[in-house]
Amino acid sequence: MFTSLQEMDAFESEIRLIIKRRQAELNMSDDTVGKIAFGFMPGQRTKVQALLVGQGAGKYRKPQRMRTSDLMNLCEAVGLKWQEVAKKAAEQKQSPA
Known about the structure:
The protein is mostly helical. The protein has a single domain, classed as Orthogonal Bundle (434 Repressor (Amino-terminal Domain)), CATH 1.10.260. Helix content is 63%, strand content 0%. Helix 1 crosses helix 5 and helix 2 (30-37) packs across helix 4 (68-77).
């Protein structure tokens, strides 16, 4: 259970890190991931960037909140199981800094 917004943010940050690492391992562009994960919507690459990196400049750059369906689609696009990604991110959240 998350007891603060900071914990929720840390959990999502860990998810982003896992997905971005896998994307880099596979040498997949944001465009490619977007076409697989969000092929049903316009601006697929922009959606990936908004979720994984954020929009805006400098201190105003903040990633979009990740919905469960976003997590599932992104994981599927890079060949990961969303349940395992969520579990790993939750374990990282609990480990001492």
